[in-house]
Specification:
The strands form 4 sheets. The protein has a 4-stranded antiparallel β-sheet with strand order 1-2-3-4, with no helix packed on it. It has a 4-stranded antiparallel β-sheet with strand order 5-6-7-8, with no helix packed on it. A 4-stranded antiparallel β-sheet has the order 9-10-11-12. About 0% of the residues lie in helices and about 45% in strands. By secondary structure, it is mainly beta. The two termini are about 25 Å apart. The protein has 1 helix and 14 strands, in the order ββββββββββββαββ.
Length: about 170
């Protein structure tokens, strides 16, 4: 991606139409992971220069973005409160500005990375620290997330490096 130093790019996600790319990368000025967005007009074209998402970033590490299928919600992991916390920013339309991010209730602390599965109804995320595991949460009709617990048998070293996953008929593909 133009303007992004080699080796600094971390987790990323694409919008459903593949015209928006959200990613985390080390900020060249201080080395802290920040969220960025790059856009393109057509899938056959390269992405334009990335824009740092200052309206979402904190003074600490912000990483692992995941965009909902409708493009109106951006989940990411932030250390703004001293630990890995799942945050949610929303907007009114795909071209609108993001509202201030809020912590997602019902999801425990020490989240390291996230990935989506089953549309916008299930989140798969990796927890770090003493609770290292691959876990999931379900969203109900009121759009409230509830943790469903850890996936048994997943090596915590795999969970700590989760950058994408899919759930198909009760099987997780990493």
């Amino acid at each position: 991606i133009d303007g992004t130093p080699a080796g600094s790019l971390r987790e990323f996600c694409l919008s459903e139409d593949e015209l928006q790319l959200f990613f985390s990368a080390a900020d060249p000025s201080d080395g802290i992971l920040r969220l960025y967005e790059a856009r393109r007009a057509h899938t056959a074209l390269d992405f334009g220069a990335p824009r740092r998402l200052d309206e979402l970033n904190s003074d600490t590490e912000d990483r692992a973005p995941w965009l909902s299928a409708n493009g109106m919600e951006l989940y990411f992991v932030s250390h703004r409160n001293g630990y890995g916390e799942l945050m949610l920013a929303s907007r009114r339309g795909p071209e609108a500005q993001w509202f201030a991010p809020q912590a997602v209730p019902g999801i425990p602390q020490d989240v390291y990375s996230i990935a989506q599965a089953e549309g916008d109804l299930r989140l798969i995320y990796a927890r770090s620290g003493s609770n290292a595991a691959l876990a999931s949460a379900l969203r109900d009709e009121q759009r409230v997330w509830t943790e469903q617990g850890n996936y048994p048998g997943v090596d915590v070293r795999v969970a700590a490096h989760l950058t994408g996953a899919s759930l198909q008929e009760q099987e997780i593909y990493l």
